[in-house]
Design brief:
Length: 242
C-alpha cells in the first residue's frame, strides 16, 4: 500500500481535490488514516449487506473507488447469484479497482462501470445500494434527485447504506468535532501542513450536510425506515429501507 504524502510538501497553488492517478495510487492508505474506524465500518457494511442482499439481484456500490467494499461484501456474503456493480467517475480509480480485484476469487459476478453521479443513476433488479463517502462529493443541486432515483431503483425492502462526513448540528459542536477529527489525523501521521492543504483543496469539492439534513433527504425520497448505525463526531453511517 502506497503511503499518502500528496500534501506533505508546501504548495504555492492547490488544485481542487480530485480522484486522478496521484490520489488513486494512495487512496487505500488515505482512507485508513483519514476515516475513523474505517475497517470496522467496512465490516459493518458487509454484515448489513448479508441481511439485505436478495439472491439473484444486483448490489450497486456508487463511488466504488479501489473496490475495498465490493471485495469485503463478496467475502462476507458468499455465493448468492448476485451481481456486484461498482460505479465510479474516475478511470484511474476503476483501474486500481480492477487490479485489486484480480487478486480475489469472487463468489458472485462483478461489473465495473464509469458514470458521473451528478447525471443520475441507472439501476435494475437492485436489492442494495451503497454510497460510502460518496454523496458528499455530489453537487448539492443534484443530491435530492440522485437519492430519489436510488430509492426508485431499489426493489421493495431494498436498502441504501450511506456513510458521510457531516456538519455538527450547531457551530459549537461543529468546531469541536472538526478539532477532534484533525487530532485523529495527527495521531495517524498527518502533519499540520498536510491537514491544512488538504482542507483547502477539498473546500469546494466536498460539501457536507448536517445529519438532520441527510435524514430528511432520505425520508423525502420515500424511504420508509431510516436509522443511524454509526456516529463518530463528524462521520455518520445511515441505513435506509424502501
Amino acid at each position: 500500500m502506497s503511503r499518502d504524502e500528496i500534501y506533505r510538501q508546501s504548495q504555492s497553488f492547490l488544485d481542487d481535490f480530485g480522484f486522478g492517478e496521484s490520489v488513486a495510487t494512495v487512496f487505500d492508505d488515505m482512507l485508513e488514516r483519514s476515516v475513523p474506524f474505517y475497517a470496522e465500518l467496512q465490516r459493518m457494511i458487509a454484515e448489513m449487506a448479508g441481511d439485505f442482499a436478495m439472491p439473484h439481484t444486483r448490489i450497486y456500490d456508487f463511488g466504488c473507488s479501489t473496490g475495498t467494499t465490493l471485495i469485503g461484501l463478496d467475502q462476507a456474503i458468499g455465493p448468492r447469484g448476485l451481481t456486484l456493480v461498482g460505479v465510479d467517475n474516475s478511470q484511474e480509480m476503476l483501474a486500481k479497482c480492477r487490479a485489486k480485484m484480480a487478486g480475489h476469487a469472487f463468489a458472485n459476478a462483478v461489473e465495473l462501470t464509469r458514470a458521473d453521479l451528478n447525471q443520475g443513476v441507472v439501476m435494475e433488479n437492485a436489492s442494495l445500494a451503497l454510497m460510502i463517502l460518496t454523496l458528499q462529493f455530489v453537487r448539492p443541486l443534484y443530491r435530492d434527485r440522485l437519492v430519489r432515483a436510488i430509492h426508485d431503483g431499489l426493489e421493495e425492502n431494498g436498502a441504501l447504506v450511506l456513510v458521510e462526513k457531516v456538519l455538527g448540528e450547531s457551530s459549537l459542536f461543529n468546531r469541536s468535532f472538526i478539532k477532534y477529527y484533525y487530532e485523529f489525523k495527527k495521531r495517524n501521521g498527518y502533519t499540520e501542513l498536510e491537514i491544512a492543504q488538504k482542507r483547502e483543496a477539498l473546500e469546494n469539492v466536498l460539501v457536507p450536510y448536517k445529519l438532520a439534513e441527510n435524514l430528511e433527504m432520505l425520508e423525502s425520497a420515500g424511504f420508509r425506515y431510516v436509522d443511524v448505525f454509526f456516529k463518530w463526531y463528524n462521520f455518520v453511517g445511515i441505513v435506509a429501507v424502501k
